[in-house]
Design a protein that fits this description.
- The structure is a single chain.
- The protein is mainly β and about 130 residues long.
- It has one domain.
- The chain contains 1 helix and 5 strands, in the order E-E-E-E-E-H.
- Strands 1-3-4-2-5 form a 5-stranded antiparallel β-sheet, with no helix packed on it.
- The longest helix has 6 residues.
- The two termini are about 30 Å apart.
- About 5% of the residues have low confidence.
- This is Transcription factor.
- Pfam families: DUF6009 (PF19472).
């Protein structure tokens, strides 16, 4: 869950890879997954779809016990707002969701009016391309 991700857990991120156009998404879910490599597309074993993932730099250290790396994976479920705009998350967002526009390597992002299903603020409208 994003609330459980601490900035110090993602300091080794070098880049975020997006697998689709994120400009139309109000939010993405994020989690820290244990993965066998620092880079490359991870396997995806959830319902829904993977939207993106983080790449780690060469200084990222694997877990001493498992040899795996903790990397962020961004994803959406079939009942999320992008596919069901009037559904469960027409207002509000899942606990692990953040506004995709607030994400950057090493920054966990945060919820906004937009990600919560509210009207965009004037400041957010000015940022919109």
């Amino acid at each position: 869950m994003s609330a459980l991700i601490a900035e110090d857990e993602i300091v080794d991120e070098m880049d975020l890879v997006w697998l689709e156009d994120i400009s139309r998404l109000d939010y993405v879910r994020q989690s820290l997954d244990r993965l066998p490599t620092r880079r490359g597309r991870p396997a995806y074993h959830r319902d829904g779809r993977m939207v993106g993932y983080a790449l780690l730099g060469p200084k990222a250290k694997p877990s001493r016990s498992s040899g795996t790396f903790r990397r962020r994976v961004f994803w959406l479920l079939p009942h999320d707002r992008d596919t069901e705009p009037d559904g469960l998350y027409a207002r509000g967002a899942p606990a692990e969701a953040v506004d995709v526009r607030t994400l950057a390597p090493g920054s966990k992002g945060h919820k906004t009016e937009r990600s919560e299903g509210g009207p965009m603020s004037s400041a957010t409208r000015e940022l919109k391309p």
